[in-house]
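Record filed below.
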Amino acid sequence: MGMQYSDWGDRRHPSRWMAESGDAGFWVPDRSEIVTQFFTRYLFFSLAVIYFSTLESVPPVLFSIEQLLIALGVYFVFNSWFFRQALQGVSLLKIRSAMSADLLIVTLCVIHDPNPIPPSALAFLMVLLGNGMRYGMRLFAEVLGGAFLGMAISFAFRYRVGGFDVNAGDVFFGVFWVTLALYAYILMGRIEGQRRQLDYRSRFDALTGLLNRHGLLAAADRVFDKSEASTPATVLFADLNQFKSVNDRYGHGVGDRVLAEFAQIFSESAEMGVCGRWGGDEFVAILPQRDEAAMRQIFERIEARTAAWSSSNGLPMAVSLGVSHAPRDGHDLVTLLSVADIHLYQSKSQQPEMASEPPSYRTLVNEPEAS
């Protein structure tokens, strides 16, 4: 299956944040986090089995002890299936399904807990923290709402069907639980903001706002997935000419201005591309596969806008461009950049640095003229 349109349209390509339909998105846990989460689920499953197995009876609300243990066994089977699915790949549907199973089994356990103040209700907090603090604020809000609903349903059954009476301990427990849950949500909101800032700084260039080298490599991992080695793509490599002389003559402030301006020109000209600053005065765009005519238009657009800015600002800003294509020239970004770099320097060697006539697209990709 090839890359989806939206994968190319998102120039930021977060390495950890997965965006799905609409505004929904979540942080993608790594394998160790997934294992830890499901190990915790198995631990609480074991505690629930031990806890209810030692009871002589449970309130006759919905199930007997035997039926409740069967329900726990069904949860174990579903949890194992969710575990296997999560190791293969995480999606919003899988996360929400596992969270729903957690909330349902905890609700059943609280309904049948024989203690006036049910200790099993603390498991709602574990579901809340274990899911909400791992995937982001959107899912935290969902599991928080689910936990409130589960608590309301379970205590309603306890009071109306199970024969329990409301006492001061129940009120204190409820107020304590709600306060702790809301505090965790507020605290998680602040942590989420800091997490996003750190994630942004690790992947984006502060000067240009484009992806940095780390962000480009992460985006390339998504585009050139190992399971999709034949995914067609085009890599565009740009290098500013005489940038060092601009820095030496006009100062680093002007040099930064040149880089920021060219970054805007480059990203706007490389339509539907994942754009970034590779380092120094080098820029990269990863594009869906483009033919010769389309790439010629992109080259001309970049060169024309660069020349116009240089003329209007009186600064010597010119650009050399090279291109490579996957899978013909390689299956990873580093290899494709090496090929594009060769084409870029071939074009530089064929003309003076500040020549008025830019090299043709065919020269830059080292393609022979059609016979």
Observations:
- The first helix runs from residue 5 to 9.
- DSSP finds 13 helices and six strands in the chain.
- The CA atoms of residues 224 and 332 lie 6 Å apart.
